[in-house]
Amino acid sequence: MPACLDAIERAQQQLGEAVEVIVVDNASRDRTAAVAIERGAKVVLDERKCLSAIRNAGAAQATGKYLAFIDADSIMSDNMLAEIKRIMDSGRYVGGGVSRVWSDRVSLGILCSVIVFSPVLLWYGVAAVMFYTTPEAFRAIGGFNENLYAAEDLDFGVRLKLLGKTRGQRYKGIWRAWVTTSARKFDEFGDWFLFRRIRMVLRIIRNDRESANEYWYRPRR
Known about the structure:
By secondary structure, the protein is of the alpha/beta class. Helix content is 48%, strand content 15%. β1 (22-25), α2 (32-38) and β2 (42-45) form a beta-alpha-beta unit. α1 packs across α4 (80-89) and α10 (198-205) crosses α11. It starts with a helix and ends in a 5-residue tail after the last helix.
């Protein structure tokens, strides 16, 4: 998380405006809350085992003009916040996601996994990983679906895009800024996990709560 907060601070400096940073502490076993407070972030405690609920809890505390969601193990580029503001200030967009996403580690197994699942995002025309929109649009679509334990980000993007169509606004995938995300799940399960444990992956895709919890929450180290 410190690297994520460092990146937000650099992006805030390039933006030239103060931003509200909200960290949702999801039953962490380290100094997440303490570090966040030391860095000036607002901390929200939420122990529910549901990524949608966690994101909604953070959004409920936000007071800014725009919302942007990023995972604690991801790092935004220095121009990210300025790019989001430029896009949203135009009034032409309902929000969107980030199209340029890099892994902090690359292997053949990771590349094959990306190749297999990328067509899904292309089919729906939704850029994911880091989302941004207005609080009003977020509320209009009901935030993230708390009945989903996997693929909640894809669902959110699709519904946000549909809302934009009803308003004559587009869903925008950002290309001028980027996010570097952690390969920690591949570190835990192995680089070929998506192929070697395909049954578990399919159960997660089918929204099986137990399998999703196994993937996201079961302690291993």
